[in-house]
């Protein structure tokens, strides 16, 4: 018999939670597919996907089954021992990608922390301590640890926490000339998101990623792709690099990898992985059996032609409706992104007002996101039903009308 639950309400957040978030006024309590119900029983359409996390929506039966089955077997043993789910997941991820080795952790920030440490250790071991510079893009986002937030090119997130990690250089995204100007023999890694997520849902140009690959090869630096937001089927390829045909040396994944269960992964080659020898890096929960069992099932479902092709078709359905709404209300200057990571860029008259549209959507029982003050972001389930897309877009249009007519 379960213990009685004390009632909670949104006002409790302001009393007991550290005020680093400003959540919506309602509390979701149940989800099914792409629908969510709050405490009052109101039904919402979810086009936010937990910020590109709920890759198979809410309470997907395959994931519930995987978690429930593993919960009855083994929850945690630490990395003093290995376990079956972590080995199965690693074998499937390496078989499906360029990689030969996997490192598991609990979040995208941890995956990137591991990637950046590995890049520096690799360069230190082979070329000496001077080869330690990391080049990343302005407006990038790589996590909230001190290292990853410094590599991310957004001072609003990294300022005010004391001395920053040194040896980080930032350049404009999609600017080949700027990249060429800073990558030198002191560079140990170039770190890029194939699609900038938090920076405005901005895809990389094909030539830009190709140039980054060539520069890294020429200067014996590692190319790191942060696919925390763009990976695991989000773009219609298992990972976005596959659509570009540009192969990194290290890839990071999280978010959609666990379908809602916390997990992160760093993927790389045998040659590079060998520089993280025993004791050089670790995490207590990394490779947790529960997380890996769920992520394995996510991979089994997502890495299929039906789902990946479906993502591309659903993109067109969203993009068509967004273009119609944008034209009817003159609110968007364009729609960009790949697959089901979509950004609607606000027109000049609505710049800076993304939050107004997010709030209006909530009043129409719709969950959406923003990517900065000028871009509305959609990152729904990869298997969202067409009926939910249509209903979500109908509610979205009503939300747009609210803002325009206010």
Automatic annotation (TrEMBL):
Subcellular location: Cytoplasm
Known EC number: 2.6.1.11
Lineage: superkingdom: Bacteria
Entry cofactors: pyridoxal 5'-phosphate
InterPro entries: Ac/SucOrn_transaminase_bac (IPR017652), AcOrn/SuccOrn_fam (IPR004636), Aminotrans_3 (IPR005814), Aminotrans_3_PPA_site (IPR049704), Class-III_PLP-dep_AT (IPR050103), PyrdxlP-dep_Trfase (IPR015424), PyrdxlP-dep_Trfase_major (IPR015421), PyrdxlP-dep_Trfase_small (IPR015422)
Binding-site residues for N(2)-acetyl-L-ornithine, renumbered to this chain: 144, 283
Record-linked SUPFAM superfamilies: PLP-dependent transferases (SSF53383)
Co-factor: note: Binds 1 pyridoxal phosphate per subunit.
Modification type N6-(pyridoxal phosphate)lysine: residues: 255
UniProt-listed CDD domains: OAT_like
Pathway: Amino-acid biosynthesis; L-arginine biosynthesis; N(2)-acetyl-L-ornithine from L-glutamate: step 4/4
Molecular functions (GO terms): transaminase activity
Reactions it catalyzes: N(2)-acetyl-L-ornithine + 2-oxoglutarate = N-acetyl-L-glutamate 5-semialdehyde + L-glutamate
Keyword Lipid biosynthesis: no
Ligand binding (pyridoxal 5'-phosphate): 108-109, 141, 226-229, 284
Keywords from the UniProt entry: Amino-acid biosynthesis, Aminotransferase, Arginine biosynthesis, Cytoplasm, Pyridoxal phosphate, Transferase
General remark: May also have succinyldiaminopimelate aminotransferase activity, thus carrying out the corresponding step in lysine biosynthesis.
Similarity comment: family membership: Belongs to the class-III pyridoxal-phosphate-dependent aminotransferase family. ArgD subfamily.
Subunit structure: Homodimer.
Name of the molecule in the record: Acetylornithine aminotransferase
């Amino acid at each position: 018999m379960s213990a009685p639950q004390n009632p909670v309400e949104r006002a409790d957040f302001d009393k007991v939670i550290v005020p680093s978030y400003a959540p919506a006024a309602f509390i979701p309590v149940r989800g099914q597919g792409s629908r969510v119900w709050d405490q009052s029983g109101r039904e919402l359409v979810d086009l936010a996907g937990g910020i590109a996390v709920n890759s198979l929506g809410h309470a997907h039966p395959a994931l519930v089954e995987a978690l429930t089955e593993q919960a009855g077997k083994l929850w945690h043993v630490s990395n003093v021992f290995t376990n079956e789910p972590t080995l199965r997941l690693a074998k499937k991820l390496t078989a499906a990608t360029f990689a030969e080795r996997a490192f598991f952790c609990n979040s995208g920030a941890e995956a990137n922390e591991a990637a950046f440490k590995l890049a520096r250790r690799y360069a230190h071991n082979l070329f000496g301590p001077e080869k330690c510079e990391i080049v990343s893009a302005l407006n990038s986002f790589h996590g909230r640890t001190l290292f990853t937030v410094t590599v991310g090119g957004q001072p609003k997130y990294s300022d005010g926490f004391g001395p920053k990690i040194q040896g980080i250089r930032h350049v404009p995204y999609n600017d080949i000339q700027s990249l060429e100007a800073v990558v030198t023999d002191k560079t140990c890694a170039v770190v890029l998101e194939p699609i900038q997520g938090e920076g405005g849902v901005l895809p990389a140009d094909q030539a830009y990623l190709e140039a980054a690959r060539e520069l890294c090869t020429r200067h014996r630096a590692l190319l790191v792709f942060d696919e925390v937001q763009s990976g695991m089927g989000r773009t219609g390829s298992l990972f976005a690099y596959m659509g570009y045909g540009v192969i990194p040396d290290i890839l990071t994944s999280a978010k959609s990898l666990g379908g809602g269960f916390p997990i992160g992964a760093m993927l790389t080659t045998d040659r590079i992985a060998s520089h993280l020898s025993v004791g050089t890096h670790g995490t207590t929960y990394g490779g947790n059996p529960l997380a890996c069992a769920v992520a394995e099932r996510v991979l089994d479902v997502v890495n299929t032609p039906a789902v990946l092709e479906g993502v591309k078709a659903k993109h067109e359905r969203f993009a068509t409706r967004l273009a119609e709404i944008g034209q009817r209300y003159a609110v968007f200057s364009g729609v960009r992104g790949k697959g089901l990571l979509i950004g609607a860029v606000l027109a000049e008259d609505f710049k800076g007002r993304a939050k107004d549209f997010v709030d209006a959507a909530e009043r129409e029982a719709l969950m959406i996101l923003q990517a900065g003050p000028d871009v509305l972001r959609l990152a729904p389930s990869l298997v969202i039903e067409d009926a939910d897309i249509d209903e979500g877009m109908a509610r979205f249009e009503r939300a747009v009308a609210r803002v325009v007519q206010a």
